[in-house]
Give the backbone structure.
Amino acid sequence: MGLLSKAPRFVKSAGLFARGEWRNRAGRRSRRGVNLNVGSGRQEIAGFTSLDLDSDWYRERGRKFLEYNMITDELPCDNGTVDNIYCSHVIEHLPNDVVLRFLSEAHRVLRDGGTLRIACPDAEFLWEVSSFPNGYWKWRDYWFSNPAQATDPSTRARRSDYFVREVATPNCALYRNRRNELAYDDSIFDRDFDSAMHTIGAGLEFTAEFPGDHINAWTFSKLNDFAKSAGFTKVIRSKSGGSVSEIMQHEDFDRTCPQMSLYVDLVKG
């Protein structure tokens, strides 16, 4: 049985799974095989099947996707049948056990030599760049000036607010949907990273009401340990546009917040 054998009938008839070859307009690169875009959100990638939670957003726009809940579902693929998996800015929204299960599922369905590419906020980089006054966070000002997100858009965000927003959103003091009354200020950067993260990450859990919150901070070391536990033997710290899979080097990848992202390629075999 192959990938399509586990897909619902409407998915098969829609030709949703991307088999065969896709070639970009310039004809420079082809995309063959079975490729998945897990937690695809707004990003459709030609030659990749979108997997994500069902939502009004998809239905209203008529987007093609395969419904997939990373918390409860197995990847809808047979063992060793997938060539590439792309997962961009998803794992920061989920607890450790769910991420480890997903990595194990990805290892199961990938062919030998297949690649899982993960992008997520780089907690160590964000810690370092937040630890002293500088202009780095200018790009994130729009979030803190949005009344739908911030408690008081007129309040000037501190470096610690920007940092906590990215690694522990429910604990951010200026977040309208703040759920934990965590006390912190910029003096937290006087502590060591691990100690500070233990404090900042206190009380975090996934909440279906706010699925976009960041509840899990990732470093390369942590993701490497999880990948090895899931069976991957080759774990490469990558760069934007620098995947070891040629197919995932194209400009339609790595588009979400590259200025703060950690990129890691996990290769099976």
